[in-house]
Design goal:
alpha+beta; Beta-Lactamase; Helix Hairpins; Heat Shock Protein 90; 3 domains; five-stranded antiparallel β-sheet; five-stranded mixed β-sheet; 13 helices; 12 strands; rod-shaped
């Protein structure tokens, strides 16, 4: 598998190798040029030294082919570590020394006139040639021999040519090359090792996170990335923190989903059990004929309750998909509130409630979805009627401050415990009083209200004190 570690290591290793290749090429070229240039200068000095030596010996009358001259020339060649050729003014070899690479019988051989011309023109010259006398191309340096004996005239007596093999020229360069290669290998090994360790250290937390993600995906919602990774001050730490936050959110959503399914199952089970039990009792004759109407009414009530539950669930599903609140239009909130209050007049009268409606004389235009806000108002008023004590007062008021309209709905009933106030907008949540005093609530009305207002970027608050509970939501003024 082409893992991140392999890619990271390959990329780093490739960059290191490429960098060292460039460095090696530059080093080889520069060190070679420096070494060769130094050796050429040394070779020029050697040829000048031999030319002076020969000039003094020949200037004192010593013959080039004499035993004494040949012995002295051998000692000079040994001293400078090079082969030496002496020629007369015409370029004919008259003496030789060293014979390292020289062909046999060079005495009497002729040095090319072009070489002599260069020596005459430049005084000294380094070349790479065999002159027809050496077994391979060698580095050569020549110089004119001048009469330097006692009272010498300085006349040209011939030429001296000093030669060294290429291997000898590279004797200094090779150790430098070997040292560089050895150093480069050590540095490369250290670089590859450190790169491997670094890559593994970078990949290890990702592997740990991957393992947690796989197990989390299999349903182990309590797993989290180790805090040691999250505490890092780099991208790995940010990734671990982000994953843990996501995991917390998913775990909470899963817990709410489980609670939702459990609550729905409970809410569906109660009316369905009642309907099935009474229907079976009527069918098998357990319930007397004179009580059938009473129990059929109970079946009808439970069926309507079941229908309301299903309808609220469908509304909730559409809201979560943003299928309900899809537009922002201008409408009169006073008209919506009044119409909603009128639609609930029958239920208000049935419970003997008075209405304290404090609505502005003129219209209050706001932005929102009229149908959705009608549902919000209806749910809150229905909730207020449901939980009001008989023969008390429910209140409905609209006020404006700044660019907001505040719609408040108030009822007089039992106080909601303070610890339950943050929970009443959750799905299927019911306070104790709704379970004890009313069996029709399905726990979705306030959740739908909160969802609609959230989609409109509006807020809703609730207070409950001294048997008075008040819900207040906001809408943005259009004018």
């Amino acid at each position: 598998m082409n893992t991140l570690f392999k890619r990271h290591f390959a990329l780093t290793a490739g960059m290191i190798l490429f960098s060292f290749a460039l460095l090696a090429a530059a080093f080889m070229a520069l060190s070679y040029q420096f070494t060769v240039r130094g050796q050429k200068e040394a070779l020029d000095e050697k040829s000048a030294y031999v030319a002076q030596f020969a000039g003094r010996m020949l200037g004192m009358g010593m013959e080039a082919d004499s035993q004494d001259f040949t012995s002295a020339l051998d000692e000079a060649a040994s001293l400078i570590g090079a082969d030496v050729l002496l020629t007369d003014v015409d370029g004919t070899v008259t003496a030789e020394s060293g014979k390292n690479g020289l062909s046999e019988g060079c005495i009497g051989c002729q040095v090319p006139a072009s070489v002599l011309a260069q020596l005459d023109e430049k005084g000294s010259h380094v070349m790479h040639a065999d002159l027809g006398m050496f077994s391979d191309n060698r580095f050569l340096s020549g110089a004119q021999i001048r009469d330097l004996g006692r009272g010498g005239s300085g006349d040209k007596l011939g030429y001296v040519i000093v030669s060294v093999s290429p291997a000898a020229m590279m004797e200094l360069w090779r150790p430098l090359t070997h040292l560089f290669i050895l150093t480069a290998l050590v540095v490369l090994c250290i670089a590859f090792l450190s790169s491997s360790v670094t890559a593994r250290q970078q990949v290890k937390p990702l592997q740990e996170m991957t393992d947690v993600v796989h197990r989390f995906g299999m349903g182990e919602y309590d797993l989290r990335v180790d805090q040691r990774l999250c505490s890092r001050s780099d991208e790995m730490g940010e990734l671990g923190t982000a994953f843990n936050a996501m995991a917390d959110s998913i775990a909470l959503a899963e817990r709410k989903r489980s609670e939702f399914v459990a609550n729905i199952s409970h809410e569906l089970k109660t009316p369905m059990t009642t309907i099935a039990g009474f229907a079976d009792g009527i069918l098998d004759g357990t319930i007397p004929p004179e009580k059938e109407r009473e129990y059929l009414k109970t079946i009808s009530d439970e069926t309507r309750r079941l229908s309301r539950l299903v309808r609220r669930m469908l509304d909730m599903s559409r809201l979560q998909k943003h299928d309900v609140v899809i537009s922002q239009t201008e409408f009169d909130m006073v008209e919506v509130a009044a119409q909603t209050l009128i639609s609930l007049e029958g239920r208000i009268n049935a419970k003997g409630l008075d209405v304290d409606a404090r609505l502005p004389d003129g219209p209050v235009y706001v932005w929102g979805d009229p149908d959705a806000i009608t549902q919000v108002t209806y749910n809150l008023l229905e909730n207020a009627i449901k939980f009001s004590h008989p023969h008390t007062v429910i209140g409905l008021s609209i006020t404006t401050r700044g660019n907001k309209a505040y719609i408040a709905i108030r009822d007089t009933g039992e106080t909601i415990p303070e610890e339950e106030l943050p929970l009443i907008f959750d799905r299927l949540h019911k306070s104790d009083r709704s379970r004890s005093l009313d069996k029709e609530g399905v726990g979705l009305g306030l959740y739908l209200v909160k969802t609609i207002l959230n989609d409109l970027k509006e807020t809703i608050t609730v207070t409950s004190k001294d048997d008075v509970t008040e819900f207040t939501f906001t809408l943005t003024l259009a004018r």
